[in-house]
Amino acid sequence: MVKQFAIDGIRTLPDSSTWDDIMYFLYVNQKIDKGLKDIENGSTFTNEEAREYLRKL
After folding, report:
1. According to DSSP H, which parts of 1-57 are helical?
2. CA 43 to chain centre
3. CB–CB of 13/21 below 8 Å?
4. Cα dihedral sign, 19-38-5-12
5. Which residue range forms the structural domain that includes residue 14?
6. In total, how many domains does the chain have?
7. 43: part of which helix (H) or strand (E)?
8. Looking at residues 19-48, what average pLDDT do you find?
């Protein structure tokens, strides 16, 4: 499934795309997929929890 998504996505990029464009496309979509899975699993922080965490740094 991931392989086919990557193939289909790369096909949507313009013919003038560089390796960097392709890698960026794959990287961003990987991060979006991970974020959606985190939401599904409840592995998220509220804004207030994030603020409190950052205050402690």
Report:
1. 2-12, 19-41, 47-55
2. 15
3. yes
4. negative
5. 2-55
6. 1
7. none
8. 97
User: Which tokens hold the place of 23?
Assistant: 């890698």
Three-state DSSP state, 1: coil
Which residue has tokens 């998220």? 44
- For range 24-47, the mean pLDDT: 96
- CA–centroid distance for 5 within its chain: 13
Q: Tell me the backbone φ, ψ of residue 22, rounded to 5 degrees.
A: -65, -45
Cα 30 to Cα 22: distance, rounded to the nearest angstrom = 12
Report d(CA 30, CA 35) in Å as an integer: 9
Residue range 17-40: mean pLDDT, rounded: 97
Q: What's the one-letter identity of residue 37?
A: K
Question: Where does residue 52 rank: exposed (0-12), middle (13-18), buried (19+ CB within 10 A)?
Answer: exposed
User: For the whole model, what pTM was predicted?
Assistant: 0.74
